[in-house]
Amino acid sequence: MGVSEVISNYKVYGLEDSIKASKYPMSVDISKCTHEITDTTKRLAGCVTGTGHDNFLNGIVVQFDLTFTIKAWTEAQRYHFLDFVSSQSTMHRIAKFDIGKQCIEYVRPELIAVVEEQVAYYNANPTAENYLRVLYNVPVGFRLTARMTTNYRQLKTIYQQRKNHRLPEWRVFCQWISELPHSYLIIGEEGNHAEN
User: Fold this and answer.
1) Which of these, 58, 118, 161, 191, is most buried using a 10 Å CB contact count?
2) CA-CA-CA-CA torsion for 74, 181, 187, 63, nearest 10 degrees?
């Protein structure tokens, strides 16, 4: 599973302005603050999560399309600054998806066949009860894509908690984090020092 299968269409906003703003607390004349990343900027970004000194990272906004399995989406919902812009919907479209293509390789073929059978039965007999039979049999290895908005500070928390996670999607997500512009502000000095 590669990064392009999990993350696409990403954009980073507010990077330079937030780096400049990181210098406001110690400035009298903010017009002299620059977007240069200094040792102090790095120390602020690298502070212990939750202490607040890394608050300038909130201003570095990241938007992207994220494709996760239902299992990974359930875990992602714990991050309250990982906001959904819009997403694919099983409630509206489950009977239209190609079930086999949406499932990852760990979903057993016989489970996919059961759901495909339920979809065919629902399409021939479209009742509310038959729709629920489809919905409640979708495996957690079923992938959906959502447009997400977050920031570098939340990505710092996610990276710390998920970089060695059992689910390959989380590890791929963290690999992507390490490739963001100035990712060392998120993951620390030992990480990738991407400049663009």
Assistant:
1) 118
2) -20
